Amino acid sequence: MFAYSSCQKVINLKLNNAAAQIVIEGNVTDQLEPQYVFISQSVPFTNTNTFPAVDGAQVSVSDSTGAVHQFSEIEPGIYASSPFKGIYGATYQMNVKTGNNAYTAKSTMPYLVNLDSVTAKIDAFGNSNNRGIYVNYQDPADVANQYRFVLYVNSEQVSNIFTNDDSFTNGRYVKMELFQTATTISANDTVTVEMQCIDKNIYKYWFSLAQQQGEGPGGATTPANPPSNINNNALGYFSVHTTQTKSIIVY
Amino acid sequence: MYYKWLQNQIDYKDGAQLLLNQDVESQLVYGTGRAYGIELYAKKKYGRFNGWLSYTLSKAERKFAAINNGNYYPATQDRTHDVSAVGIYQFSKRWSFSGTFIYATGNAVTYPSGKYVIGGLTTFYYSQRNGYREPPDSRLDLGATLEGKPHKKYHSSWTFGIYNVYDHRDPYAITFRDSKTNPGTTEAVETSLFGRIPSVTWNFKF
To answer: Does domain A115-218+243-249 have CATH number 2.60.40?
Structure first.
């Protein structure tokens, strides 16, 4: 009923322009490859979506044995290391210094949970052209697990954030739909899913961010910045996670 | 005039997880609040024209250690101004006219104060809980009643009404998103529900 009587329009709101905030996005994976840290700044809501890079920062990641991996700036705001891989169960610390400000964050590499397969099924509701995408994996019973999934359709990332934990499925075989309405997935599309095993803090981060995507009154909580594991009021996160990618062509 | 101290106020944590959560209590925070204000009311009871007028000036605030850096912030229902007026005019034995007007400050809400990019996705930056106001609510309703001719066994009347005469659109929700028509920018979208609604009622008593 609401669909018929409601109306939507784009409006102009007077929004405060908060001072630019630093945004740090650091990732270390379990693959032997260069690891990346991205540093940028926030902009006012009414600006275009161009986010200024923060260059000239000192970036490093150290592990619990004291070994330090230095990162160097390969493009403005993009810092890369020499190839190394995160060890399962080990905790890493990211150190970032820009000007007089220092930021640190810690994250632990979870043990790998294998992504068995990615499957597609015709949408049970209404649109028979659309396919639901499912991930299938065996959750281990002995530890608490958290997951994040990234979905690509024809190499384009779907804007939804997908997370799951094992509070209801501990030790079970999990078949979970990556439910999204942003894109219609039809026959012959190439669908790629990246599965990440993430630590608890990073799960909270992505989960909070995903909640704010809920459009409209049904899906939305009072919005707030997701809890960052970086100190000193930086936005963003430092995530040490496993990564595994599978692609299928939808039938 | 009143001043209230509120204790054991409950609100959700930032980023609370409520769905399918077996202990929802763990997603709550406890704090204090205060509410104060002044209420004025005038009524005309006699004569062909009667009605009342009320005005409230108030402030309701809440405070939680874990929200808004521990500072007071306006409660969602905080209404700085709230005006309502009702008038009824007895035009003749059979016709009477009535009108209702309300005006109230909009809800206190949280809007973004900036944006940034995470993993290629535009993400909004929030600086203050409930730091913004929705546009004010206001509405005028008009009605006319025609009493039926007196009859021994029954009594009837017709009421004609218009709800929201000047078609004011109160926001039901305001959402923020990447613009579809203008890529590379963001926009605020307002969803509203009811516009002007006419009504006709036939009342029957026996």
So the answer is: yes
